[in-house]
Request: fold
Amino acid sequence: MKSSALFLLASVALSGGCASGGGSGGSGPGSAARSQPKVQSEPSPCGTLYGRPVECVPTQRAAIDAAMDRTSQGSMPSAETFEALGMYAPPDAPRSSSPSKPAPTPTPGYGADSTGLGFQYQSFGAWNSKNTEFGSGISAWHGGQPTPASAVPASGSARFTGNLFGIYVSPSRSDSTARANLVLDANFSSRSIGFTSSNTTLNGSAAAPHLDLNGTLTYAVAGSGFSGTLRNAGGTLSGSASGGFYGPRAEEAGGTFSLKSGGTETLTGAYGAKR
Reply:
């Protein structure tokens, strides 16, 4: 009788397993397990792990929102946005200003910068974001790897050649992008630099010789930063320029300038040159 009862219980267990759809005739221990329904989840912008959405941490979520917002406006997200997402930033992604990193190019607008000109220790440019809530939107930036004061030669001379970019506002208030060739003649003994720009053009084609600039910049003993006064060939503009030597052994030099007239005419920009 006991053996019959045991056989009856085993038969009930096996028949229950088959009815549940958990196996094929009770071939093994897992035949009675019920299959779990698949969980349907909304896709996560932060990706998936083992097929399941990954929850965004707050900083990651904010970075994604910022990238999506800027992309919808037709401008590239900042370098910091890419890096917050664990990505390498493209070379032309704008970055917050710092002495050793290129400053961002404001958008929308127009201007010019040193990209592709072969400078190894500095970056510079000028930009006009037109009418903004903060004013005209004209800006110039310059940054790089400053030369240690002890590495600036104490004697001799050197010629640096390069480029100048600026935003020119005419007396009639029209604005243009100015480009010019640049020569910096450094006299390390007298700690002075002759500044001469030439072949100035507006918007890439119109010759503007009246905007060629010249002047002298000086720097202190045991220093690598210089400053001075510039004037235009037309005699209508004057103003200040500042800059410094860049690279381990003063291989490059550059900076910014701002010239004004007694009226609305202005020329604001940046420059760079190398030996």
Observations:
- The two ends are 108 Å apart (CA to CA).
